[in-house]
Amino acid sequence: MVFKTKKKLKLLKNKKYSFCTCGLSKKLPFCDNNHKEHNLKNKTNYKSLKVIPHKDIELEVSSSTWKN
Questions:
Q1: Would you call 29 helix, strand, or coil by DSSP?
Q2: pTM score of the predicted model
């Protein structure tokens, strides 16, 4: 699977992050809860992915559902 959109991030220790899994967020790669309305209209079950790093880290994230 080829991911077109990749985001490089620095995550801070013990801070909670919510990542978009539906691709509808206007704050990609972070979730802005646009999935809630989409789920109601389309009978889907998207949820954000929650991450709490135990140390400061840098990583690259991507998803096949992200369009930009």
A1: coil
A2: 0.82
